[in-house]
Write a structure and sequence with these properties.
416 residues, alpha+beta, single chain, elongated, 9 strands
Length: 416
């Protein structure tokens, strides 16, 4: 093993260096990583080819390298398509190299790949530490298969070498995963900080505008109410005054919307059954969706509780569902799913509308930004603020021509 120390260090370098380059210059979101030819897939192919080009050979036909690292990373962070691409490339490369060990690799990686494909949905829902444990289980299960295959071929003499090499490989795999997860976490925190800064600016603006405008509006409305009680007014003038009062009330409601950006009602938060609130909101929006010939499909788990405000969670749902309906032409389907996963309540609102570009997604939730012709750009900004106040998050995935998915995530609590 000491004889091969330089080759082992080289294997470590060709794994860690491309990963660092990837995170420094090619940051990708999870949705982008799942594409067949994502930057992550390309980086994993580079690591795979470099690792397998300079292997450590124990005996004729039996070679060792860090190929399992890009194999596992591709499945865990890229998904099925990148994982399959890496697996096929790995087997082709190993076949070209030749030797008896190819059949061990063929059986090993085919079985492991099938297991990872079947576990794709569970993998996507794993938390940071859970992914580390899962990757370790896959790695050592893979190692056991190799040991059994070597023993079946009377190659037990190289098992001790293989175990030492695989321990080093496993440590390198864990380091790579920690780097990926920490960088991803920092990117998320940076996006949340940027969003918080934007909301803070609009909050200050909302508070100052509301203070300056509401006082004169209240005075004007008061005088109009006094005038409408004047018996000398004819019906036409009285009607004009009623219209003016109604318009002032409408302006007041708009100002209240802006003011809600500055003062979320955090003092009024209490346990609420979000399942019931989702059902009530859908009932409320059904008539509007029917007018647009939009069908709403639901999958709602019962008795899911979060800490929040009933009116505000309903306001968020109405904003997003209404946007989803308006994004579709006449006819279409809007899906609403509510479920619990990893102690989080998730509400998914999926439309089959025109979708958005990557640039539009980045600006979504920015004060006064809207993709609608007659939109004000306030609804989603308020929604982001309200969800954040309830210690929740909004995740958005969209593709032009295929639709948009809004995912609301809230910490789950027990019913009281």
């Amino acid at each position: 093993m000491f004889f091969h120390a330089e080759l082992v260090l080289y294997q470590v370098l060709i794994v860690l260096f491309p990963i660092l380059v990837y995170h420094l210059f090619f940051n990708e979101k999870n949705s982008e990583r799942r594409k067949p030819l994502s930057k992550l897939t390309i980086i994993m192919l580079v690591i795979l080819s470099l690792a397998m080009s300079s292997p450590i050979q124990f005996s004729t036909g039996y070679i060792y390298d860090f190929r399992i690292i890009p194999f596992i990373i591709a499945f865990l962070y890229g998904g099925t398509f990148p994982g399959v691409i890496i697996t096929v490339a790995l087997l082709i490369f190993r076949y070209i190299i030749g030797g008896d060990g190819f059949y061990v690799i063929l059986i090993n990686y085919t079985i492991t790949g099938i297991i990872l494909i079947l576990s794709a949905k569970k993998i996507s829902g794993l938390q940071k530490n859970q992914k580390l444990i899962f990757a370790s289980l896959v790695f050592w299960a893979n190692t056991v298969i190799v040991i059994l295959a070597l023993m079946a071929q009377n190659e037990g003499k190289q098992i001790w070498f293989m175990l030492v090499f695989y321990v080093i490989t496993w440590i390198c795999l864990i380091v790579v995963m920690i780097i990926i997860q920490n960088v991803d976490q920092r990117l998320i925190l940076r996006e949340e900080l940027q969003q918080a800064e934007k909301l803070n600016v609009i909050s200050q603006l909302a508070a100052s505008v509301a203070h300056e405008v509401r006082n004169p509006m209240t005075s004007v409305r008061g005088f109009l109410q006094l005038m409408v009680d004047d018996k000398n007014l004819d019906s036409q003038h009285r009607n004009y005054i009623d219209i003016a009062i109604n318009e002032l009330d409408h302006a007041q409601s708009i100002i209240n919307d802006y003011l809600s950006l500055a003062r979320p009602n955090t003092d009024e938060f209490s346990p609420i059954n979000v399942s019931d609130e989702v059902k009530k909101t859908i009932e409320l929006m059904t008539s509007y969706s029917n007018i647009q010939n939009i069908k709403i499909e639901t999958e709602i788990e019962d008795d899911l509780f979060i800490k929040g405000n009933k009116n505000e969670i309903k306001q968020v749902l109405v904003n997003i569902i209404k946007n989803g309906i308006e994004s579709m032409d006449i006819g279409g389907t809007l899906k609403v799913k509510t479920y619990e996963s990893n102690r989080e309540i998730k509400i998914k609102i999926i439309d089959s509308g025109k979708g958005m570009t990557r640039n539009q997604l980045k600006k979504l939730g920015t004060p006064f930004y809207t993709t609608k012709e007659k939109g004000t750009g306030v609804g989603l900004t308020i929604s982001f603020q309200l969800v954040q106040a309830m210690k929740g998050k909004i995740r958005i995935e969209s593709e032009q021509g295929k639709g948009t998915t809004f995912t609301l995530q809230f910490p789950s609590i027990e019913a009281e």
